Structures are given as structure tokens and as C-alpha cells.
Automatic annotation (TrEMBL), chains A, B:
Residues 12-148 form the HTH marR-type domain. This is MarR family transcriptional regulator. It comes from Micromonospora tulbaghiae. It holds the Pfam family MarR_2. Coiled coil: none annotated. Signal peptide: none annotated. GO terms for molecular function: DNA-binding transcription factor activity. One of its GO terms (biological process) is response to stress. It comes from the Bacteria.
Length: 156, 156
DNA sequence: CGCCGATAGTTGAACGCTCAACAAAACCGG
DNA sequence: CCGGTTTTGTTGAGCGTTCAACTATCGGCG
């Protein structure tokens, strides 16, 4: 490690702060909207989405944590809450006695189905509608690059 | 409001999920790094930064909330904690008896100075180093567009 | 088989954020 | 100057996340 810090030049500074402002505002807005009209934070919505897409609407906790990019602990707490809300149910895994499978209940699916249109609408309004098609493409490439870069070295 | 939802097409879906993954991973990584080697979350770091840049290293709570994009409540809680850490101090505002000014203490400044190089290094490693100069420029434009779009209609 | 390190998942405490309610002072029209 | 509205900042409860510690099981090697 060198002794001199390479500070951000004014352009980088501007980029970094704009990114912080935008991504924070975006996530907070969507979180608030989802909390308001579905009674759950965005993170929980994502869990239900992943479950709804899985075969039989069921996933190992471990898989689910991977897919939603959350720690096992976070998922465990979230699952506890989702379970008392009646949106998921946890069962023992038949092939691994340590394991648990999270299952989306019918009630959970219904709640998700009710929340989805409004949320998608929000994502459109706050993200896609503001950008040109070219920018959407740029954002995809940038995000995929960053995601790769981060998950290479960044553990959970 | 129409009755039909315009769902995200596969490309939009992919973009949206990549963005979620990337921004979440980025923020979590930086947060963890900052928490680990400066003992504060990224949000608190930002508060100290803004104060350090202000004339006399002091700002009205209200200004500070604006600059850091946080609610008054959030800032109030944060300030309470930063004050017990000895990094800021709160004084009555001379021109408005409702007001408070947050002042960065010498100890706060020193802590910030100690944390900054490592954090900047992190931002470089996890963000700028992964992108081409063109992508950095694209990211700036995209972020500024989104930030404008969101702060137009999105209150706190 | 028997042990030992890895893996799966949970738990509780500490902490930060949100939301709604609140107090106090400032502003402003009449 | 008076009364209502707005602005400023704080507070407490409830919730979600982190981190470290812990239990239980699995997998593999001797």
C-alpha cells in the first residue's frame, strides 16, 4: 500500500455524489411506496418474487439468500417475519436435516400479485421513464460490470 | 390510471435486477469497510464530510439534512449519536431560536481525516476502477438525470 | 468407524431508520 | 398585534439489519 491517496478529481466527485443521491433517492422512494401500499419493505418483496418464480414456489433458505443477495442472518430474520405475516412457511428439507425450505403460501402469492402492478409502475416512473433507451442499455452494462466486480471479491 | 400493467420486458428486467444487485453490493461493501476501519456507517461519514466542507465547519441542521439527503428525523438521531461520539457538537442558532447548528469538532475532523484515504481507495477499487472513462461519464449523466427526476416529485 | 473442519440456519443485542406525534418559534394576513 | 399556518428540530416506538456466537448436521479423510 502506497502512502499517497489518489483523491477523486472533480468529475469523479461529481459522479460519485450524483450516484449516491440518485440510488438512495430511488431506493427510498420505492421502499416507501411498497411499504405504503403493500405493507412490506422492498427487500421482502424481492424475497416473495424469487419464491414465486421458483419451481413449486419453494427454495432452500440458502438459495434464497444467494438470489436476494442477503446474508443468512438477514434472511432468517426476514423469513421469521414473513412467516408470521402468513406469506411464507418453512419446512424441513427432506435431503438435508440441517436445511429449511421456504415456501410461498397462497396468501403470500396473492399479496405479491396485488402489490406487483403498483411496484412495476413505480420502477417505470422513477427509473425507465427518466432515461433514454441508450441510457438504459448503458446502465445495464455498468451495473453488470459492477456486480461482477463486486461479487468476485466481496463475500457475505 | 389504466387497468393494464406494462410489465418489464426481459431487457428491462435484467437491467433492473443488475442495478439492484450492483448498487446494493456497492453500498454494503463500502458501509462494511467504513464501519470496520472508521467505526461509523457511510451515512455518518457523509455528514462529517459535509460539515468539513462548510465554512467554519458548521451548518444548520436543516441545511445538513438537505445536503445529505436525509430526513430531519434521521439527521436528528444521527447527530445525537455523533455528538456522544464527540465528533460533532450542537449549538443554538443565534438568528433563529428554533434552530440548531451542527459543528464538526477537532476530534471529528481528525477521525474523518483518518478515515478518508481508505474510503476513497474503496470507492476507486469498487467503482471507478471497474468502469471505463466513458462509462463513468454515462453513469454521471444517468445519475444526475435520475436525481433530478426524483427530487422534483419525491419529498422527504 | 470416528473425528474434524465446513456448511446450514438461528438467535439476541446493538444500532440505524421510519413514521407519527409533538413543542417551540417564526412568519403572515388582517 | 393577534391568530392561524408553516418551519425547525426532537422524541419514542417499531422495525430491519448487522455482527458474533451458537447448534446441528454433513462430508471426507485417516
Amino acid at each position: 500500500m502506497g502512502v499517497m491517496t489518489r483523491w477523486l478529481d472533480p468529475d469523479e466527485q461529481r459522479t460519485w455524489r450524483a450516484f449516491l443521491t440518485a440510488s438512495r433517492a430511488l431506493m427510498e422512494t420505492l421502499d416507501r411506496e411498497l411499504q405504503h401500499d403493500a405493507g412490506m419493505p422492498h427487500a421482502y418483496y424481492e424475497i416473495l418474487v424469487r419464491l414465486s418464480e421458483a419451481p413449486d414456489r419453494r427454495l432452500r433458505m440458502s438459495e434464497l439468500a444467494e438470489l436476494t443477495g442477503s446474508s443468512r442472518s438477514r434472511l432468517s430474520h426476514a423469513a421469521a417475519r414473513l412467516e408470521t405475516s402468513g406469506w411464507i412457511r418453512r419446512e424441513d428439507c427432506p435431503t438435508d436435516r440441517r436445511g429449511q425450505v421456504a415456501v410461498l403460501t397462497d396468501e403470500g402469492f396473492a399479496t405479491l400479485a396485488a402489490a406487483a402492478p403498483g411496484h412495476v409502475e413505480g420502477v417505470r416512473r422513477h427509473l425507465f421513464d427518466a432515461l433514454s433507451p441508450a441510457q438504459v442499455d448503458q446502465l445495464r452494462r455498468i451495473s453488470e460490470t459492477l456486480a461482477d466486480h463486486l461479487t468476485d471479491s466481496g463475500p457475505n
